[in-house]
Description:
alpha+beta
Amino acid sequence: MREAVLAANLALPAHGLVTLTWGNVSGIDRERGLVAIKPSGVPYESMTAEDIVLVDLDGSVVGGERRPSTDTPTHLELYRAREWIGGIVHTHSTWATAWAQAEREIPLLGTTHADLSARPIPLTRPLTEAEVEEDYEGATGRALVQATTEHDCCALVRGHGPFAWGASPAAAVEAAVTLEQVARLALLTTALAPDAPSLADAIRRKHFERKHGRNAYYGQ
Length: 220
């Protein structure tokens, strides 16, 4: 599991999704109740599998010599709420973060978006001052859960940045890469046509269902 999480973390700079040490990937072993996550503040270029930290679902460190990512409580809230999630990615990638800072969901304008999600990419609600003071990272996770459904694989944290998830750490990275491209295309589209219409429902449904539906036929 540490090797898989290391590989997923190293994929973030390779895809241009992170700057410096920003961002993190985690993965979960549901049978053992353990989460492997990037250590806080460790450069990607020097990171090894031994640096990956193991925590239980209460956040207690059970393996590794490093401190886990400061976003660990956010990851744990998602894992506890969505049994199907096997990996989570958080980045400050440029295009998706721009939408988060503008406090706008990403509208569903084209088929690239529909391949990822059948609805606009949701935006979390504002956190209260009490939530920020008492349990900022945990409250962020709970806001993500509130903003999403079982069928979502990503969302924007208001004023912060994107989170994406999937059945594995590698799948979560793929969702994060796709989300960044969707965010870029949507921003460019709205710059060219501020009143650009949403993608037609029939095409939206077709593109989502052929990749994620019961009778999906995309890929081998």
